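Quarterly update from the structural biology core.
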Amino acid sequence: MKLLFLVCLLGTIEAAVIEKPNECKEIMEKDGISDLFAKHVSHAIHSLTVEDLRMYFNKDAGENNNIPVVNHRLRDQPRVLDDAPMIGYDEEFRTGGMKHFDLIMKGIMMPGWNLTAFEVLEKLSHVYHMSEIWVQAGEKYKEVAKTLDKNSELCGCVRDMDSNGLAKYIQLTAFQIRYPGITSGNKEITDKYLGGYLDYHISYGLQERPKNLVKALMNFDFSGTDEELIPKVVDELMDEAGFDEEPHDPWEEAAESKAHWDWCVGELKKLMTPELIYDTAVFVHCQLNLEN
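Predicted structure, tokenized:
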């Protein structure tokens, strides 16, 4: 009964190049980046669009924006797009909320579109939750942009997504959204994925991952098709992520359980830490200002 709402081309500019991962760890720590950078940023950026980047971060953001996101078309390849796409909001609407709502309702019956395993209220809750993160990260982005040189050592380290772990985390996020419950360790769920795509209700977030999983994730090779990788993801990346197979009515849950809603809101607020906001703002600034 959970209602939890829940990748670098330097181009022609000369940016700082840091050769040793340990050096980057020290640089990032010194400049205020948290040790949960990859986890924070993968969550904050995974569903961004060009329109969202323009609305919340930089009005001049283009389609070659260097912000990796999970492919909204969950049955298509690649799993992760190199750039946040233009999604096609109805620009006659003036508010972000109505643009998001309209897009969700238009795609509600499209197989494999966006958060397939979420019900309507959960899809809305997810996009509003992400919008809250983007508003705050966008405000911090404007502060960061005034002082952080795009050619700085920090930006060089932030852009090195293979070394800092972000590339791995966003690939894992893509698998968890495409195949809800795939990392749960529940064989009733995972065995079925070996036979094809299935939808399950799932609650996913930023729960702390076991240290052994983080090590396994950093060593995991995500090159290959979904079909080739599903068995390895199931066997090697179990993190006990929450899942719920039982049919449920989120409208009824939300309407009849104020205590449950208060709990949900509390969990969402826990995710929106100053560290997540700053990590995201720095990443978006370094990427959006990376010339192609």
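The chain has 14 helices and two strands.
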